Amino acid sequence: MGNIRTAVLTGLAVVAIGAVWHAKTIGQENSPSGAVAAGAGTVGVVTVFDHEKLDAAFAKALSNGGSNLLWSHTSRQGTYNVSTHSRESVKAACQPEGCSHKDYTAVVYVVSGAATLVIGGTAKTIAPDKFGGQSIQGGESHRISKGDVYIVPPDTIHWYKNVESPFRYIEVPVT
Fold this sequence. Notes:
This protein has 175 residues and is α+β, with helices and mostly antiparallel strands. It is built from 2 helices and 11 strands; from the N terminus they run H-E-E-E-H-E-E-E-E-E-E-E-E.
């Protein structure tokens, strides 16, 4: 388990370094204000969200059905997003049929709470990007909690069960 955690943290560090390098490049080619982030402090390419702004973003995520776009930047290379997610109520809970991310890998950092993350298995596909008709069968279960990082590849069915509130996480899509 230690080797897996080391590999995941090393991978996350590589992604973060690449994102910082890319953001610096973007910042040098654009004016200082390319970010869209209500109430965020921005200087050059650095955007800071203090705990009060994050708490407000998680509250907004909860009222929006579980997700809230925290930050977005578009450049010639593409659009980069960071979202807050809150799974604290039935309204914001993942469906037992699961979900998947099309066209991106999700890098996720758990900020608070805990849940059992079920990854993989099978579900009946009823439409593109929709799973229904039955709960996920099989798959792997992992107990995740505050401070954990996990990475979900594109088109991987996953869902959360046994949620301990407030279960909040930050998601960064990587293409």
